[in-house]
Design goal:
The protein is an all-alpha fold and 219 residues long. It has 8 helices and no strands.
């Protein structure tokens, strides 16, 4: 499998994961089917859209490829159809979100380096691609963006993006590099959720014990 094919598959995987997380968030906010689709779409393509605008890439990546919209429609219908059986929506949302930021960090860094930007900009754009859609999703859903509050979210993306840039600089096999980045970002995010890891200096402001896991929150 070529690197280009692997990245395209990862891109579709990330879109699907983020679309599901957006649809789940809409369901938790008691939105209708259309609202569910809107939130799925915003989550799935929001970060990549911001990245493409900053890089001056036109047309936007999802405009000329109907597969992205198709994945958002499918994700919306699946979540809507299975809503009676989704009893642990918070856990499913967090897992899909973790997969999404891992994949989109890879995509963001790859697109940035392909455009010829420097290492620091590539890391920043990788993180923006990963967290942009989630921030827009939370704002539209009228909930606080998780990336701005104590949880290890953006830091996981930044760490993975830096790793990918470093591996590319060292000349590591490209496929190995992108897989390692995606696994590291998703792994850090999931471990932080499971063990309740937080960004230093913020846990005492919220009143939530530092070791409490967001996975334990049920609504």
């Amino acid at each position: 499998m070529s690197l280009e094919t692997a990245i395209q598959i990862m891109d579709y995987l990330g879109v699907a994961a983020f679309a599901v997380s957006g649809a789940l968030k809409a369901g938790r906010r008691e939105m209708d089917l259309f609202g569910m689709f809107v939130l799925a779409l915003i989550t799935a393509v929001g970060g990549g859209t911001l990245r493409d605008i900053l890089l001056g890439r036109t047309p936007l990546f999802w405009v000329h490829d109907a597969n992205y919209l198709g994945l958002c429609v499918i994700a919306t219908l699946v979540v809507f159809g299975l809503q009676r059986w989704i009893t642990r929506g918070e856990r499913a949302l967090l897992i899909c979100d973790a997969v999404g930021i891992g994949v989109f960090t890879v995509i963001g860094v790859s697109c940035a380096q392909e455009a010829g930007v420097g290492a620091a900009a590539a890391i920043a754009l990788g993180c923006l691609t990963a967290i942009g859609g989630g921030i827009l999703r939370d704002l539209v859903a009228l909930t606080r963006p998780v990336v701005l509050h104590k949880e290890i979210y953006a830091l996981a993306s930044l760490g993975g993006a830096a790793l990918l840039v470093l591996l590319n600089y060292l000349g590591a096999p490209a496929t190995l590099s992108v897989v390692a980045c995606g696994v590291v970002v998703t792994g850090i995010r999931l471990l932080s959720l499971h063990y309740g890891w937080t960004v230093p200096g913020t846990a005492f402001l919220t009143g939530q014990p530092a070791g409490e896991s967001p996975f334990d929150e049920q609504h």
